[in-house]
Amino acid sequence: MFQFQEMTVKGAALGLSGLLAVVAGGAGAEVISVQIENTNSSGGFFFTPFWVAAHDGGFDTYDGGALASDFPGITEIAETGNTGPLSDRFSASSSGLAGGVQATQTAVAFDGDAPVFSPGESTIFNLDVGDSSVNRYFSYASMVIPSNDLFVANGNPMAHAIFDASGNFNGPTVIEIYGSDVNDNGSELNDAFAGAAFSANGGDSIDEEHVVRNFFTKSGDGDYLNSFIGSQTGNGATIGSAFGAGDLIARITITQVPSPGGLAAIALGGLVTARRRRG
Questions:
Q1: With left for phi above 0 and alpha for psi between -120 and 50, is residue 230 left, alpha or beta?
Q2: CATH number, domain with residue 64
Q3: What is the Cα–Cα distance from 169 to 132, expressed in whole angstroms?
Q4: What is the dihedral sign for C-alpha 23, 26, 31, 34?
């Protein structure tokens, strides 16, 4: 289905025998490297683990102006950061059945068991996209915490075409997420003292039955975020600043991991050049 791994820095030297072994075992699907950064300033807001996917352009995480309940899984992300239901919907969708791949990328441990992206934190991992002429498009989703039901995601499933129709890489692709890109799921009342997830403010959440909307489009939206300043998150961190519509709050950078064959060609080319220089 999918695979991802943490990137590590490896030595540059590779013996010719090892190189040939890589080539022999080589051929495989395209692999991309995905870096996720929380660009909020210190003391700012967090993000839950990011759900990401590469697919054929047919999987819609949500639609602005529609009920969140029409898109199973997005409410669980928006209210608690739980990616499981969205992952299940993706697996059962036409995009998932067509070979789409997905992963949930975690960061450091939050309160012992729920990993999050803290302000200033970044992580990088590999994702095997399979057939890049099919799985051309990239999607993501994550909850903004602490909040009642704010999230970031791309509603347009074809917004980020990382490969062209022939499977050639279009990147590097940089997705910059601003405060104006945050969405209100419309399923819980925005009140910092009414059961906001990952907040130590307490209170009981108040259900709403409103549509998903773009945040920062109603008076009071900024005041809602500011009301978290001075409060503590579940892991004891204190929120010291809020973000505005024009603030860059996250960044996703997608690059291509060279295929083993491509790496072999580069290395062998360098070896031939070195031999010619010795002559």
A1: left
A2: 2.60.40.2130
A3: 8
A4: negative
Q: Are 11 and 233 in contact (CB under 8 A)?
A: no
- What is the count of structural domains for the chain? 1
With a threshold of 0.85, does the pTM exceed it? no
Report phi then psi at 236, rounded to 5: 90, 0
CB-side neighbour CA atoms (13 Å) of 276 = 6
Per residue of the chain (279 residues), give pLDDT as tens.
Answer: 333 333 333 333 333 333 333 333 333 479 999 999 999 999 999 999 999 999 999 999 999 999 999 999 999 999 999 999 999 999 999 999 999 999 988 765 444 445 788 899 888 999 999 999 999 999 999 999 999 999 999 999 999 999 999 999 998 999 999 999 999 999 999 999 998 988 888 877 888 888 999 999 999 999 999 999 999 887 788 999 999 999 999 999 999 998 765 544 444 444 444 444 444
What residue numbers bound the domain in which 120 lies?
31-255
In a domain, 26, yes or no: no
Alpha-carbon distances, residue 85 vs 77, 165, 190, 226, 278 (angstroms):
8, 30, 23, 30, 60
Closest CA to 243 of 154, 160, 147, 156: 147
**What is the C-alpha to C-alpha distance for residues 187 and 23, in angstroms, rounded to an integer?**
52
> What is the dihedral sign for C-alpha 175, 119, 193, 81?
positive
In 3D space, the residue among 88, 66, 86 whose CA is nearest the CA of residue 74 turns out to be 86
Does residue 278 belong to any structural domain of this protein? no
